[in-house]
Every structure is written in C-alpha cells, then in structure tokens.
Amino acid sequence: MDACLPRLAVTAGEPAGVGAELLIRLAASSLAADLVAVTDRDLLERAAARCDTRIELVDDDGSTQLHRRPGTLRLRQVPLAVAEVPGQPDPRNARHVLATLTEAADGCMAGRYDAVVTAPLQKSAINDAGIRFSGHTEFFAERSRADVVMMLASPDLRVALATTHLPLAAVSTAITRELLTRTLRIVHAELRRKFGIDEPRIAVLGLNPHAGESGHLGREEIDTLIPVMDALRAEGMLLLGPLPADTAFVPAQRPHYDAVLAMYHDQALPVLKSEAFDRTVNLTLGLPFIRTSVDHGTALDLAGSGRADPASLIAAARMAMELVARRKSVI
C-alpha cells in the first residue's frame, strides 16, 4: 500500500520579505510532500508573478495525498490586513503573521498537519504593532506550553542554544543551573527521539574564553556548568566539556560528539552558517510537534525581485519530512 505524503504546514512569514517567494519555489520543486501554505492567496499569487512561476493553488480540504505534482500547492487562507510592499514591513500585517503561526501550531497539535515549516518573519514589525514578540521559538513554546530549545542543524553539525535572543550583557545571569539542567535534558531526549541516537554525546561550550581558564577568566564554568554536568553525568548522560568555544569545532573534535550546546546565539552559529548557510535548518526541540525553519532572515533587500535562494527552505522541508518519517516508524 502506498504511504500518504507527509502534510507540512508552511508559513510565509513576513509578507514584505522573501518568504512567499521562497514558498513558491518550494512548491515548484519535486519535493514529495503535501505542502499546505498557511497564508494569503493574493500574496502567493503576486509572489508567483514576481518569480515568473506558475502555481496551482487549491483550497486545503484536509484530505491526505499519495502524490503531489510539482507546481501544486494547497492553501489554508489567512488574509492580509493590507497588501504587502516588498521590502517595507507593515505593522498592520502583524496579526496576520501571528494568525498563520497559530493555525500551523494548533493544526499540528490537532493532527491536521504532520509538521510546521516556517519562512522568516520580521520581529520588529510585530513589536512595532504593540505586540511583544521575541521569535518563532518562543511563540511556539508559549502556544504549546512546552519547554523548548533552539537547535540549528546542517548535514555535518548540530548546535543547540542555552539562550537565544538575549543581549550579550544578560547572558551570564540567564545561565542558571536550572536552565542548563532543563536544556541538556531536552537536547538529550530529542537527540534520541527525533534523530534516533541511542546514546547522544553532547559537547558543552564554556561561557568564557578558554572555558574560564580555571576561574581566572570567569567563574561561570566552576559555579554553574561543571556542577550541572557532573550531576547529569551521574544520571548517565555523555557530556564533554566545558570546552573552549574557539577549539570545539576543529575537525579533530567533531567525531567525539553528536551535538554542541552553546551558551549564547553568536557563540557557535557563525561557525555553522559559514560552513553550510544554504543547508542549515533551524528546529525547535521540546515541542509536541515537529517544527523546522530556514536559518536566515527576511532578506528585505531581495524581496520582490524573485531572486531569493530557496535552498534553506527546501532543506527545512526535507528535514521535517525525515523527522516525520522517523516518528511514524517508531509508532
């Protein structure tokens, strides 16, 4: 019996950015997934015209599919407040963006979709509308009442973050024993559940240069990281470190771990993105559903040109498909 295609809810993100154009390129590909665009029909039609690509939009009826023809795209209509102007985010569309995320998350939790794939959004436009918003990861965590961890993964490297969108001055205070314990437990469990790694090996980066140099360059490693790691090792976790961030990614180190936990956003992500920008996927660990995303922003300077590269969105969709398949194989 033929298996049904995985149903992926794909949000278009910021209407004035490149998200809708990337979604059109994704739909034009031969990807073997049931793609359900959660956005506005007119936005997609204008994006298709800018990309000089013909797309057949069909209202989503919730049925399953065995096959999808390239160039076809199902639609869950979420109307814009005002028509987009490429490159110029409009706060009046902030509630449209949040409504797409709500539909995608709630639809996954209700079983309408197998996974959520998100295009980039403009956080500032939502905040300018008077709505406090710090990112996809935090939104989905609140919506599902879950403790989550942001991870970015390329074919060769997985990096999780202890803190995400924080000013650097706030990072040290935010890294508590409770936070690290919770984060490492989520990463460990999700490496087993989502990636099928029976005994995950996690490299933990120190916060300070040289991982604190035995306390001479900061005491966070001694006071916080090492006690947490020792306690979790006693539970059976395989943890390396704390490792100095400047040498943790050298080729000789990489065979020794399955994932890295970095202390803050820019500590490790430049390494990952410089190596595999078009193949890196952002995923949220700890959610009750699968969520993947591009690893880049809204590219407002490219919006409207039809020239934005869809490689990261395609990679995000492929990873979602792989995670869905693995989940179904163990049910």
Number of domains: 2
Shape: globular
- Beta-strand level of the residues, as a percent range? 15-25%
Helical content stands at: 25-40%
Output the CATH homologous superfamily of the largest domain: Isopropylmalate Dehydrogenase
The tally of beta strands, per DSSP, is 12
Mean pLDDT comes to 93
Specify the biggest β-sheet.
12 strands, mixed
Distance N to C terminus: 18 Å
Annotated CATH topology of the largest domain: Isopropylmalate Dehydrogenase
Task: Kindly provide the radius of gyration, computed on alpha-carbon positions and rounded to a whole number of angstroms.
Answer: 20 Å
Order of helices and strands: EHEHEEHEHHEEHHEHEEHEEH
Number of helices: 10
Point out poorly predicted stretches: none
Trace the largest sheet across and list its strands: 3-4-2-1-5-12-11-6-7-10-8-9
Secondary structure class reads alpha/beta
For the record, the CATH class of the largest domain is Alpha Beta
- Report the CATH architecture of the largest domain: 3-Layer(aba) Sandwich
